[in-house]
């Protein structure tokens, strides 16, 4: 087995990365090396996460060590999980120097939101405030088109939303139409027996102690009382609808350190399975909403006064508007808590095509599709 592929990441490589990038599948054809640049680009993630045990995982303290590594090891392709910071562009330039072709997988798509007032009433001041952001966004997209033409050989497109993809759609870049990480897991779940149970599932996003707050030097979105209010909300809405409730904790949460008092109703790393068996799904703007759409579950969207004061609130309201879901405000008392077992089929289909699975894609695992394309390229 020859080393022809590597995967590069700017945050510390974890088990979830091994799974979502299909390394178990790729390893059947190629011995894939993982290039972890977190000590150079994202040192805080190195503090938060423990090193994952994988025999071909390489961590680097500086770009010179990376340069020496590539002098000794030859690769045809790199799966690029980098963003677009200055250091990440330098990493890509090193790939070009060693003639390593980049593969960009555009997964985890979500509707783009700039401000909390995007779907609310706009006054003239708000419209003026939006102009510089639109100009910067336009310039960034044009820059990406130019730079990516040189850097990227293959782009894996998981949805047709042009705002997320324009920077990768140069004619010289080979396009593979496929689907996101969640759809790969959905393909596995379709083979399992479906069990339906009478409960509302709340998808937690850990707005207080999420690791990203430390890594990205950000403050928590909500105060300490937020999750007490969420539990009371769950108790009330489940009682009105004569059903139970369960809580799918964020994957980076620790069960015995969760923000919820009712630990017996909390589950970790079972979100897709819990969605599949649920009656309703209550969420904010998590990408796990993909599973609710794929399993055709009625979605209830939840915001709060605190969340509406930060960017998260606009993302929540955007999600609700696009999917045409009931929108609840945590603090509001005058709300109809009686749910209907319905969803907007047209909105779900559009969301599927735009952010989960490109309409031109097949029902084969993304990484199998990629390996077939590489095999054809190497002929």
List how many beta strands DSSP finds.
13
CATH topology of the largest domain: Rossmann fold
Residues in β-strands, percent = 15-25%
Q: Calculate the terminal CA-CA distance, rounded to whole Å.
A: 17 Å
> Given the C-alpha coordinates, what overall shape results?
globular
CATH architecture of the largest domain: 3-Layer(aba) Sandwich
Side-by-side strand order of the widest sheet: 3-2-1-4-5-6-7
- Radius of gyration over C-alpha positions, nearest whole angstrom: 22 Å
Helix count from the secondary structure assignment:
17
Tally the structural domains: 2
Biggest sheet overview:
7 strands, parallel
Low-confidence stretches: 116-121
Q: What's the CATH C level of the largest domain?
A: Alpha Beta
Secondary-structure-derived class: alpha/beta
Taken in chain order, the helices and strands follow as EHHEHHEHEHEHEHEHEHHEEHEHEHHEHH
Mean pLDDT: 87
How much helicity do the residues have? 40-55%
Secondary structure elements and pairings:
Elements: E1 5-9, H1 15-20, H2 23-26, E2 33-36, H3 38-41, H4 43-48, E3 57-59, H5 63-72, E4 77-81, H6 86-97, E5 101-106, H7 124-151, E6 152-157, H8 162-165, E7 174-177, H9 181-189, E8 199-203, H10 211-215, H11 226-240, E9 244-248, E10 266-267, H12 271-277, E11 280-283, H13 289-294, E12 299-303, H14 305-308, H15 311-323, E13 327-329, H16 345-356, H17 366-378
Parallel strand pairs: 1-2, 1-4, 2-3, 4-5, 5-6, 6-7, 8-9, 8-11, 9-10, 11-12, 12-13
